[in-house]
Write a structure and sequence with these properties.
153 residues, mainly alpha, two-stranded antiparallel ribbon, globular
């Protein structure tokens, strides 16, 4: 890399810093700042989540699924408010354990289907969100409210 390239890269970096600082200053005290801070906290919390994936002989050839990745996958499919509700709902249902079983109910969303229990956690999120879309107009907060009132969704 030449000296000119280094100088240009340094100038770009300085501009980026100033641009970011100006954007942050504009957000200060606004609702967008709280939203950005909330999202940053969730991402940080998810990144700090430690998932112990025990690898046994039966699943040694399979890629282990981490809770953090599953939560991030769901987070990217929903708005912040809807993700909060979805996170609560799945936490109550299965503690984000995609192998959870309760009688005839399986997986993250505790759906009544053995097939659902055989899916990987990312696919379980997709299927569960489709169910919520069909039954609750795609609003996990309505599903959570129903769960709080009835004990099921």
């Amino acid at each position: 890399m030449s000296t000119i390239d280094n100088k240009t890269a340094g100038q770009r970096l300085a501009l980026d810093k100033r641009g970011m600082l100006n954007r942050l200053a504009r957000l200060r005290g606004s609702a967008l700042q709280r939203l950005a801070l909330g999202r940053a906290i969730v991402i940080l919390a998810l990144a700090m989540t430690v998932s112990v994936a025990g690898i046994t002989k039966s699943n040694a050839n399979q890629k282990p699924f981490h809770v953090m990745n599953t939560k991030l996958y769901a987070y990217n499919k929903l708005s912040w408010a809807q993700f909060e509700c979805y996170n609560w709902l799945i936490h109550h249902e299965s503690r984000w354990n995609y192998k959870a079983k309760n009688g005839s109910h399986y997986g993250l969303g505790q759906m009544r289907s053995k097939w659902y229990g055989t899916l990987n956690p990312l696919r379980q999120v997709d299927v569960h969100l489709e169910y919520i879309k069909h039954r609750y107009n795609g609003k996990p907060c309505l599903a959570l409210k129903h769960w709080e009132n009835k004990g099921w969704h």
